[in-house]
Amino acid sequence: MKMKHVIWLLVALAVGSCSSCTSSPSSERLPPRVTRTAEPGETEKPIDQKLMLGLSQAMNLHHKAQILASDGDIGSAIASVREILSLQFPANAPEADDVRNDARALLARLLVGQGQLDEAMSVVTEGLAQSQRDSFFVANLMTVKGEILEARAAQLDADPTNKAHAVELRHAAIEAYDASNKIDKKLQDSLTESP
Amino acid sequence: MTDARDDDDDLLTGPVPAPDAEPSAAERTHAKAFAELVDKTLAGRTPGVMNTDDRALLEVATVIRAASGNVELAQPRRRALIEDALRQAVGARALGTSSSVTAIRPSKWKRFAPWSVAATSTLVAAAAVLLWLRAPRHVIELVPTAQLPLTQQSRPADPLVGPIARERAGDARSRIDTIFADRLDGYRELQFRRATR
Q1: Do A38 and B144 touch (CB under 8 A)?
Q2: CA-nearest residue of chain A to B147?
Q3: Rounded to whole angstroms, how far apart are CA atoms B85 and B106?
Q4: Could you say which DSSP state residue A181 is in?
Q5: B 103-162 residues with CB < 8 A to A
Q6: Which of A25-29, B53-57, B145-149, B166-170 has the least mean pLDDT?
Q7: Of A23, A78, A150, B111, which shows the fewest CB atoms inside 10 Å?
C-alpha cells in the first residue's frame, strides 16, 4: 500500500470517528451510572465545629447584650447584638438564618426603645429580604415589623394632620401581624403532619 | 609447463609476486594494454567492451585520479552547471536553459507529503480530543441508606423553638441557649459515633 493511501485511510478514520461521536443521539450515550451507599454525613449536613462555634459566639453575644441592657447601656447592647449578624456559620446552615433573624428581632426592638424607628425598620426589612425560607423566626420578624409600624403610627397621632397616614400605618401593622400568624400556622401544620 | 604469472586470467586472483621479481612478458603486455586503456578513458574514448578485471582496475584508476584533485571541467561546462544551480536556487525554472543538466525538481508527492502528514496528525489529534471530551463520565448516585440521625444534622430550629409569642419576641437569649444546647448534644453524639466506629 502506498504512503498516499495510508494517509487517506488515516484521514477517513479521523473524520469517521468525529462524525460518529457527534451524530449519535444523546440518549444512546448516557453516562454510565454507578450507585453506591452514601457515607454518614455525605448527603446530609452534619453538625460541625464551625456551626457550634457560630452558635457559641451568638449565645455569648446575647448574654453580653442582656447584661449591658440591664445596666442601662443600650448603645453597647445594640452593638453587641449587631455583632451576631456578622458571625461566620457554615454555608447554607439553617441555624444561621434562624439565629440572625432572632438577633434582628431583638436589635429592632432595642432600636425602637431608643426611638430609632427607621433604623429598626431597616434591620427588619433586610432580615426579611435575606431569609431563605419561612420559619418561626421570620414570623417573629413580621411581628416586630408590625410593632414598628404601630410605633410610627403612635408618633403621628400627636399631629392631627397626619391622621390618615397613621391609619395607613396601623393597617400595615395589621397586615404584618396577619402575615406572621399565617407563617406560624403553616409551619405548625407542617410540623404536625410530619412524623 | 606454463608459468602461473603468464596466465592473464590469473592476474588479479593469482599469487602476489615478490617485490623485487622481474615482470613477466605477459605482465608487461597487460600493463601496456591497460595503460592504453587508461589513456583512452582520460581522452573520453572509453571502449564499450572490456573484460571485468580491466573495468575494475579502470574504476580504481579513475577514483585515484579524481581524488588527486587534478580533474577539472572545461570552462563552458563549468559555467553552465553553476548557472543552472543558481537558477534552481532562486526558484526559476531551469528546464530548457541547459540541456546538459537535469533540473532537480521535487516530485508532487514529496512537496505535499509534509503537509499531508501534518494535516492527518492534526485531524487525528482533534478527533482524539473530541472523543475524550465526549467520553461518558461516571455519575455516582448516592443512596442515602446510611443517614445520620436527625439530631446530628444541621437543620432548622423551628421544631425546637416553636411559634414565638409576641411578648417573647425579644427573648432571643433564651432561644439561642436552647438551640446551642440541642446542637451541642447532637455534635457530641456525632463525635462519639465517629470515635467508636
Answers
A1: yes
A2: A40
A3: 15
A4: H
A5: 109, 113, 116-117, 119-120, 123-124, 126-127, 130-131, 134, 136-148, 152-159, 161-162
A6: A25-29
A7: A23
Amino acid at A27: S
Contacts of residue B161, defined as CB under 8 A and 6 or more positions apart, other chains included, come to A98, A136, A137, B175, B178, B179
Predicted-assembly ipTM surpassing the 0.85 threshold = no
Q: Whats the size of chain A, residue-wise?
A: 195
The residue among A52, A131, A135, A40 whose CA lies nearest residue A92 is A131
- Extract the C-alpha cell encoding B194: 465517629
- What φ, ψ does residue A5 adopt, rounded to 5°? -65, -35
The proportion of chain B whose per-residue pLDDT surpasses 70, expressed as a percent, equals 77
Q: Give the type of residue at A140.
A: N
Distance CA(B195)–CA(A103), nearest Å, equals 35
Our CA-based measurement puts residue B94 at a distance from the nearest CA of chain A, in whole angstroms, of 28
B143·A188 Cβ contact <8 A: no
